[in-house]
Amino acid sequence: MKISDEIFDLFARRGREAYFGEPVSQLEHALQTAHQAELVGATGSLVVAALLHDIGHLLHRLPEDVADRGIDGRHELIGAAWLAKGFGEEVTEPIRLHVAAKRYLCRMDKEYFDRLSFASKQSLVLQGGPMNESEVREFEASSYSREGLLVRQWDDTAKEVGLKVPELSYYQTFLKNM
Ligand code: FE
Questions:
Q1: How far is the CA of 177 from the centre of ligand 1 (A)?
Q2: How far is the CA of 132 from the centre of ligand 1 (A)?
């Protein structure tokens, strides 16, 4: 099975699941994040990274209330590693870094932290909290930190109930052209 088919299959099977403590489904969240990327004219690989940034949640079998149970699924690593069989680092690296980007922004920008949703603040604790100084330096030195930050910012706004955005089929050509 080609990876693009596996992705469509995953969203078909599990896309309706809730997005951890937020009012939208996994699929709605993915589509809204990708749409944010498109709205600002992001490259094709960043649109794909935005669409697939949380695919790790669909690959493992943790219950929806994992954060309540004090578990961090490390979905960014699971997703990036799985996608590496079909995509290059311009897709996998922003995904791998999107949780680090949140920890970075929480360290650098108090207002960013204040704006986070309740669920996102809750998972932050499990993800290690705001970065310390050496983590900040390491993050800034990584090649895809800028892209990781972009995905993060689109991610944070992609939780709007009932927002009309292009459907998954719209991204078929993006996935096939990678
Ligand atoms: Fe997300």
A1: 23
A2: 23
Q: How far apart are CA 135 and CA 137, in angstroms?
A: 5
28 within a domain of the structure (yes/no): yes
Which residues crowd ion ligand 1, with CB under 5 Å? 54, 155
Structure token pair of residue 32: 């809204």
Query: In this structure, what CATH number is given to the domain that contains residue 77?
Result: 1.10.3210.10
pLDDT digits (tens, 9 = 90+) for 106-151: 999 999 999 999 989 988 999 999 999 999 999 999 999 999 999 9
Question: Is the distance from CB of 94 to CB of 43 less than 8 angstroms?
Answer: no
CA 138 to chain centre: 20
Q: Strand, helix or coil at 38?
A: helix
